[in-house]
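Quick one:
INPUT:
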């Protein structure tokens, strides 16, 4: 049975999240509806990241199996024909049968955007969180560095505590300013629910001077209050990293991409 791995992007503003739900519009439901129309039969998908309501993606990875073959060089265009304007398939490649986009992933890369200026923006309101006050970039960068490593991230995901292991490995974290935006980057083997938004909220308190370095260390030790979680509008799933063999699998088959992007590229 043919198996595929898609790279997709979406504007998450009008979605209740990626994962299919009993109520509310979701990215997974829209994608599966488009696949069903294309293949003429129900198709189930697996996403590498379960983004929350309002969260965007520039490099979400989704795997699925189909009951019949489809020309690889036509799959991207055919799916984009059936998808709504706020979802687009960027790339598609063949993967081994039984491939699971979530389980095989080595890491996920998220970015959070904060518009840091006195006045709000009409153009950025769906895509960045507005913070009008002064922020200490150096102190936030220090705090981001302290988050890196393998640790218990339970303080940044209270709802996960007691339901699952809250130990994760944060591979890298960075904070920098660019064009009026403060950008927060995080890459980890996996993330807990709301973890990134809680980490950004904590770092913003640090940058605002509402949380001192010693208090920040106490939060890391589970002895202080993390967050609050920032809104989903500023969060983006930028990309998913897979083992090298995923990109090398069946390289003789052509791969169709949109806008000259590399399949599985980290943007």
């Amino acid at each position: 049975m043919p198996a595929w791995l898609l790279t997709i992007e979406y504007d998450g503003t009008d979605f209740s999240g990626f994962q299919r739900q009993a109520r509310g519009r979701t990215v997974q439901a829209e994608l599966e509806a488009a696949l069903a129309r294309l293949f003429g039969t129900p198709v189930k998908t697996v996403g590498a990241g379960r983004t929350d309501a309002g969260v965007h993606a520039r490099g979400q990875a989704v795997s699925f199996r189909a009951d019949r073959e489809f020309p690889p060089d036509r799959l991207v265009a055919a799916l984009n024909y059936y998808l709504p304007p706020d979802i687009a398939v960027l790339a598609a490649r063949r993967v081994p049968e039984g491939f699971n986009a979530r389980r095989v992933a080595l890491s996920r890369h998220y970015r959070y955007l904060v518009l840091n200026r006195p006045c709000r923006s009409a153009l950025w309101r769906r895509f960045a969180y507005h913070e009008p006050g002064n922020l200490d970039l150096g102190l936030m960068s220090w705090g981001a560095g302290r988050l890196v490593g393998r640790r218990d991230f339970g303080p940044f995901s209270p709802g996960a505590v007691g339901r699952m292991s809250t130990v994760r490995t944060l591979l890298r974290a960075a904070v920098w300013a660019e064009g009026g935006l403060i950008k927060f980057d995080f890459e980890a083997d996996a993330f807990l629910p709301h973890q990134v938004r809680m980490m950004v909220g904590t770092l913003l308190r640090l940058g605002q001077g509402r949380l001192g370095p010693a208090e920040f260390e106490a939060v890391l030790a589970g002895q202080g209050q993390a967050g609050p979680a920032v809104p989903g509008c500023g969060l983006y799933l930028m990309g998913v990293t897979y083992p090298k063999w995923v990109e090398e699998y069946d390289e003789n088959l052509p791969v169709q991409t949109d806008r000259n992007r590399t399949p599985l590229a980290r943007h």
